[in-house]
Amino acid sequence: MLHNLELEMNSDKSPNIDMFQKKEKLTIIKVGGKIVEESDSLISLLNDFSKIDGYKVLVHGGGRSATALATRLGLETKMIEGRRVTDAEMLKVVTMIYAGWVNKQIVAGLQALGLNALGLTGADLNYMRSEKRSPYPIDYGFVGDVKEVNVSLLTDLIRKEVVPVLAPLTHDKCGNLLNTNADTIAAEAAKAFSSFFEVTLIYCFEKKGVLMNEKDEDSVISSLTPELYEKFVSQKVIQGGMIPKMENSFNALKSGVSKVIITRADAILTHSGTTITL
Questions:
Q1: What are the pLDDT digits (tens) for 46-74?
Q2: Can you give the CATH number for the domain in which 145 is found?
Q3: Phi and psi dihedrals of 75, rounded to 5?
Q4: What φ, ψ does residue 230 adopt, rounded to 5°?
Q5: Could you tell me which residues are beta bridge partners of residue 131?
Q6: Residue 8 forms part of a structural domain
Q7: 138 part of a folded domain
Q8: For the segment 210-264, what is each residue's pLDDT rounded down to a tens digit?
Q9: Within a 10 A sphere around the Cβ of 114, how many other Cβ atoms?
Q10: In this structure, are residues 243 and 233 in contact, taking their beta carbons and an 8 Å threshold?
Q11: Range of the structural domain that residue 167 is part of
């Protein structure tokens, strides 16, 4: 291999051997919905996740559990265009659920499978910094838009066989946590890690992939380009929460991510589903 060769050249004329080395593979799985909130589906997911070859990262949501806890505490859940309005009290709830209960359940489950998992928010190791979203035209409260991603320390940990488990919370470096879309966190992390690894990003949820007919589980669109995406959006085939997922996917590919797949949680080993391409 190249890195074992001894180059007998003048050092200032020697090529940088690192540039010839093939990047190691990293798979980032983003999972949400009831998959991480029901014990049977979570156990199944973690078992499959543990079998993925190479380095891996898990990004999770947990919105249903946050809504349930808020209701028990007498707090109203407000959603606008599918996104949670996060006031000061709701921020406490999502932090307890995302960074606490859901994150640590996943970490404990992975430890049981022999993976040395580490649960993190964007504030930990300052790996992801956001800015509070402008209140205009819609005030979402303590919701963050990602501005900076620092994964060099996480890269070192990954190469020491640590498996990061990323909760959907970031920080503004002024002492404030910010609720941040988990799909966006997965895409931004994938883009940053692509400087160090060959990254495959897999969004998994309850469906087999992006569907032509929402009522037909077998109507999976096998491959989506930007042109096809625009066509299907105009035809209302793709709508709602799938639109930001798709936009995150295309942005990730444009920023160096090798492959993006949208599939069902039980297919993360086979890579069936919808492959997003440019």
A1: 999 999 999 999 999 999 999 999 999 99
A2: 3.40.1160.10
A3: -100, 135
A4: -60, -40
A5: 145
A6: no
A7: yes
A8: 999 988 999 999 999 999 999 999 999 998 888 888 999 999 999 999 999 999 9
A9: 7
A10: yes
A11: 24-276
